[in-house]
Design a protein that fits this description.
CATH class of the largest domain: Alpha Beta
CATH superfamily of the largest domain: NAD(P)-binding Rossmann-like Domain
Strand content: 15-25%
Structural class: alpha/beta
CATH topology of the largest domain: Rossmann fold
Distance between the termini: 41 Å
Shape: elongated
Helix content: 25-40%
Largest sheet: 7 strands, mixed
Length: 502
Amino acid sequence: MTQDHTTAPDATPETPAPWRPSRTVAVVLAGGTGTRLGLGIPKQLLKIAGKPIIEHTLAVFEAAPEIDEIIVLMATGHVADAQQIVDKAGFRKVSKVIEGGETRNATTRAALDAVGEGDVNILFHDAVRPLVSARIVRECVNALWSYTAVDVAIPSADTIIQVDEDECITDIPVRSRLRRGQTPQAFRSGTIREAYRRAEGDPDFAATDDCGVVLRYLPGTPIKVIDGSDENIKVTHPVDVHLADKLFQLAAAQAPRLSHRSYTEELAGRTIVIFGGSYGIGHDLAELARGYGAQVFPFSRSSTGTHVEQTGDVEAALKTAFEATGRIDHVVVTAGILEKGALAEMDEETMDRVLQVNFVGPVIAARQSLPYLQQTKGQLLLYTSSSYTRGRAQYALYSSTKAALVNLTQALSDEWAEYGVRVNCINPERTATPMRTKAFGEEPEHTLLAAEAVAQSSLDVLISDLTGQVIDVRRAPGEPAPVPAQPTAAEQDRLPSGVDAG
C-alpha cells in the first residue's frame, strides 16, 4: 500500500495508538436506478465519452496508488452488467461486484460486511461522479492518518436560504461557512462501523450521507473536510449528462515522460507512418523518433506527392512502409490546412479542399490503417486545435473540422478498443512552423509554442497506454519558441495557404 504519511502541522491523532491500516478500500456505490434521468437502465451504465459512467469512475481508483482494493455495490439485477464492464476493462483491483441494499443504510452495511474485519481505510464514492480527481483521492487517504472521518466539499457559489412549509424564508445562513458536499467520504473502518452500530438502535434512522451518520451518532468526532472540485459533478439530471460529456471532452490528459534509454527501448524497431511529415510538427516528430531507433516513413503532398484525402495515395503509402519493415505500429496525421475568410465569400473549390484535407483525409487514413494497427496493437494519432471548443468567425470550416476530429478520436477509440488499437488527439496551442508563418506572417516568438515541444509530446502519447484522449500541449510560462527553419523558395510555393498549428 503506497501512502503519503505527511499531515497538516496542526493535526493531532485522536487516539494514542498510531493508525496502521492493513489496506485501503474504495467502495463504489452504484445502486441508483436512473429514474430521474428517465432511463431504462441504471444511470451508472449510461455511456459518456465513449464509456459507461461507472467505468470512468472505476478507472480513477484503479490508477490511484493509494487504493489497494475496489468493491462495487451495484443496483439490483445489474450485477452481471457491472462485472462485464470490470472484466472487459481489466480492472485488477476490483475484488467484488455485489448487489447493493434497498436503502442507503443497507448498502453501507453490505459494503462493511464485504470489506470484512480489521483496521482498514474505507472510501465511499458515488459511481455517478466519474470526474473525481486523483488529487482528491490522495488527499482523502492522507487525511486518514490524522482524522477518523473525512468529507469532500466545495464552497457554495449561491446564497442558501432556509424555508418553512409555506415556502417562506426563515433563515439565510452565512455563505462563507457553507459547503456543498461531494464524495468520496473516507473513514477508518472502526469509526464508520461504530457509527452504524449505534444507529441501529434508532428506529428513525435513515442514512443519506455517511459523514452525517458519524456526526449524529459519534458526536465530538472531528470530520476533516477536503477541497473537492467543480468538475466532480454527480450525474443525476438530464443536463448533467451533457455537462459531464463536455467536461470529459475538455479534460486534458498527460502522457508520462521517459528517460532517453526508455525511449530507445520503446521505439527501436517500431514503424511510424506520418502523413504531413515534411515540415513543422510532422518533420520534427519524424526526426525525433528516428533518433530513438524507430523506422519512420513521412509522406506529404510536397515531398512524396501523397494526398491524404485520396484513398489510393494513403493505401500506397501504408503498403510502402509495411513492405519495407513488415509492420506498422503508429500512424500519425498532421496534415491539415487553414483558409481564413467568411464562409459566404469562400469559393466551392476552397471549401472542398479544406473539408477534404482536414476531415476526409484523417477518416481515410483511419480506415486504411486499421488492418495494420490491429496486427501490432498500435495507435492512430490525430491533431486538433483549441478552436475545436467553439466555432470562430473567419475560421468556420477549420473550427468545424477540428471539432469533428475530436469526436472521431473518441468514437474510434471506443470502436477499436476490442482490437487493442488506441486512438488519441493532440491539441497544441499556436505553434511556430513555416506554414503558420505563411498563413499569419511574423508573430512574436514568446506567443508561440515550439514545434519540437509538440513533437515530443506526440512521441510520449504514441508510446503511452492512453486512448480516446485529447492531450493539450502548452508552452511553459516565459518559455520562448525558437524561430522555425524556413523552407526554400521552391518549397514555399508548394505550401498550402495555412496549416493546422494549434
